[in-house]
């Protein structure tokens, strides 16, 4: 799961985030309540506005829960025990997947 973050965009709505992950907004709200590393801002109406850092953390949560099959408690423990190490590995994997996609696109274009 690789989400393209716009370098000039400071906040993402919950709808944008849910669509990017192909999940319901209710799941994003649930994860927001469950995981302390998520700290979206809220506007005057109370709508969540996710920063690029929040989106990266959501990618990590998605990876642990949906792709690796962690329970919520397991994911929370994993994040607390090795957050930096896990995030570094995840970012490396994400970058490699993006490179693989670019190379595949180039190959298909030949």
From TrEMBL:
<protein>
    <submittedName>
        <fullName>MerR family transcriptional regulator</fullName>
    </submittedName>
</protein>
<dbReference type="GO" id="GO:0003700">
    <property type="term" value="F:DNA-binding transcription factor activity"/>
</dbReference>
<dbReference type="Pfam" id="PF13411">
    <property type="entry name" value="MerR_1"/>
</dbReference>
<dbReference type="InterPro" id="IPR047057">
    <property type="entry name" value="MerR_fam"/>
</dbReference>
<feature type="domain" description="HTH merR-type">
    <location>
        <begin position="11"/>
        <end position="81"/>
    </location>
</feature>
<dbReference type="InterPro" id="IPR009061">
    <property type="entry name" value="DNA-bd_dom_put_sf"/>
</dbReference>
<dbReference type="InterPro" id="IPR000551">
    <property type="entry name" value="MerR-type_HTH_dom"/>
</dbReference>
<keyword id="KW-0238">DNA-binding</keyword>
<dbReference type="GO" id="GO:0003677">
    <property type="term" value="F:DNA binding"/>
</dbReference>
